[in-house]
Amino acid sequence: MHHDSKRVHGVPIWMMQSLTGVCGCLYYNYRLKAYCLRCDFFKRAPSQAATSKKEISVSRTKCAGIAGVVTILLLSCVMLSFAEETQTPSYTVPFGDGYDEMTISQIDLAGDLERQIVVDREKGQYLGHPTTALMGDGKTIFCVYPNEHGKGPIFMKKSTDAGLTWSERLPTPKSWETNRMAPMIFRLTDAHGKARVFVFSGTRDEGPYTPVRAAVSEDEGATWSELEPLGTWGGVMGMTDIVPVNGKPGHYMAMFFDDGGEFISGSDHFAENRKKYPGIKGHIFTDLVKSYTEDGGVTWSFPESVFKSFDCHLIEPGIVRSPDGKRLAVLLRENSRQYNSQIIFSDDEGKTWTEPRPLPASLCGDRHTVRYTNDGRLIVSFRDLPPRRLKSKTPSLGDWIAWVGTWDDLVEGRQGQYRIRLADNYVNGDCAYPGVIVLKDGTIVLTTYGHWVEGEKPYIITIRLDLSEMDAKCKELKSNSNE
Questions:
Q1: 320 - beta bridge partners?
Q2: What is the model's pLDDT at position 10?
Q3: Helix (H) or strand (E) holding 71
Q4: CA distance linking residue 152 with residue 171, whole number of Å
C-alpha cells in the first residue's frame, strides 16, 4: 500500500484536474458553436456552408444543444474525479468503541517514587530519548541515549541485574559524539546464529547531511565499532523498530520515517524545499518507510515507501506480530495533531499494507513501544499526547503511560483492559521514548526520560512492573468505583 495526498507544488491534484476539466469544457463548447455558425453541420458536408439565415439559426440551435449535452457529460466526469479524490480517508473514520472517549480504568503510579530507578541524571544537562536491549544472558541490559533533545553525543549505560541498578557511563567510540538523532539499539541474530548488537544513528533536518549509520558489537556489548553509513540514504530515527521476517532466519524488517522526502534521496535541500512546498507546520510530507536485511543487520536495503501524506503525518512506528505469527501491526504517532494515532496491518511480511485506521483514544500518543507479556497480553508504553480535539479528555496529558490489552483489542479497535500512569511529566509533550523489555519471569522493565522534577532538566529512569500486581490494582479501582 502506498498512499499519497496527490499534490503538485502544494496544490491538490483534484483541484488541478477540476480546473483543467472546466476549462476544457468551455473551450470545447466555444469551438463547437463557432463551427456550427459556419457550417450546416447536420445536413451538409463541411465544405457546403449554410447560406440562409434560417439554416444558420437551425444549426445554431441544434449544435448548441449538443454542445450543452457534451459539456454536462464532461463536467460530470470532472465531478466524479473530484468525488473519488475527496473520499473520506480511513484514518479519519471513527472505528471501534473508543475513538473519542476513554472509559477504561487508569492506575496511577506517578506518586510511587520508590518504583523509579534512576538510570542517569546530571544537573543542568538534558538527557533523553533512551532505548534498551536485552542481551542473551537474560539479565544484561544496555541503554543508549543522546545528551540533548534528539541529538548530541550518544551515552551508554549497562545493567547486569535486569534494570535494578545501572553502571556509570561507559566509554564509547569517538564517532558516537557526532550523533544527530535519538539512537536505537537492537540485538539481532544472523542465519548462522551469530548475535550482534547494533546502535543506529539517524538523520536530522539541520546542519550537514548524514545518512543512517550503525555501530556494531560482536561480543555482547564488550567492544564497539565506530558509526558507519549503511548507505547513502538517510531517515529520521533510523531503524525506529525492527521485527524478524517469519520463517527466514537472519532476515529482519526495519521501519522508520523520512520528513519531506529529502533524507531518503540523500540530498540536503530540506530548508529550501520546505519553502517551496509549504504544508502543515512547514512540513512537505512525512514518508513512512521500510528496509530489509538478510544478514542479521549487517547490510540493509534501500528504503521503500509504505505511507506518504501531506495531511496525515505518520511517524515513530511500533511493530508487533499477531499471536499466530501470520500478521503484522504497526502503531503510529500522528504528528499533524489533527487525527488519532493510527494502525496499519500486513499479511505478507510487510510487502503490502492496509490503509491507516485510527486507534482508540486510550492509545493516542507518541512513540508506541509494543511487547508481549508472558501471559500473551500486550503492553504498550508511550507518551500520552492525543490529537488537539481530545486533549481535554485525557487524565494524563503529556505523561508517561502504559496500556494493557490484547491483540484482538488492536484488531477490533477496542479501548483495551486498562492504562497505567507511570510518571508525571512536568513539561508537556517531552517524555517517554521508551525501552520495554519483558524478562523470563514476567517482570516488565520500562525505561524512559522525562521532566520528573518541576523546573529541572529531564533525566532517565527505569520502572519495573509485575502485571499481576497491576491486575489487582485495576480490580480494586473498579470495585471502588462501583461502591
A1: 329
A2: 41
A3: helix 53-85
A4: 15
| Cell of residue 312, nine digits | 496525515
Amino acid found at 266? G
What is the amino acid identity at position 273?
A: N
pLDDT for 18: 52
Helix (H) or strand (E) holding 65: helix 53-85
What's this model's pTM, rounded to 2 decimal places? 0.82
Output DSSP code: residue 444.
Answer: E
Q: How far apart are CA 316 and CA 460, in angstroms?
A: 20
How many Å apart are CA 100 and CA 79, to the nearest integer? 32
Please state the three-class secondary structure of 170-238 as a single string: CCCCHHHHHCCCCCEEEEEECCCCCEEEEEEECCCCCCCCCCCEEEEECCCCCCCCCCEECCCCCCEEE
Q: Give the whole-number percent of the chain exceeding pLDDT 90.
A: 66
DSSP 388-406: GGGGGG-TTTTSEEEEEE-
Q: Which residue has the higher pLDDT, 208 or 251?
A: 251
H/E stretch holding 142: strand 141-146
| Dihedral over Cα of 353, 301, 317, 203: its sign | negative
What does the radius of gyration of the chain's CA atoms come to, in whole angstroms?
28
Q: Which residues pair with 290 in a beta bridge?
A: 255, 304
Question: Shortest CA distance to 320 belongs to which of 364, 369, 256?
Answer: 369
**206 touches 152 (CB < 8 A):** no
Between 8 and 74, the higher pLDDT residue: 74
Query: 74 near 24, Cβ under 8 Å?
Result: yes
Candidates 314, 288, 291, 278; CA nearest to 90 is 314
Euclidean distance between CA atoms 28 and 362, whole angstroms: 55
Amino acid at 445: V
Which cell goes with 182? 535519538
Query: For residue 205, what pLDDT is reported?
Result: 62
The predicted-structure confidence for 25-67, as pLDDT tens digits, reads as follows 554 555 545 444 444 433 444 444 444 555 545 455 555 555 5
Do 445 and 141 touch, CB atoms closer than 8 A?
Answer: yes
Q: Is the pLDDT of residue 287 over 90?
A: no
Cα→Cα distances 57→31, 40, 48, 62, Å: 17, 10, 16, 9
C-alpha cell at 156: 551508554
Q: Answer positive or negative: Cα dihedral of 100, 289, 135, 165.
A: negative
The answer to whether residues 362 and 105 touch, using CB atoms and an 8 Å cutoff, is no
Query: What SS3 state is found at 302?
Result: coil
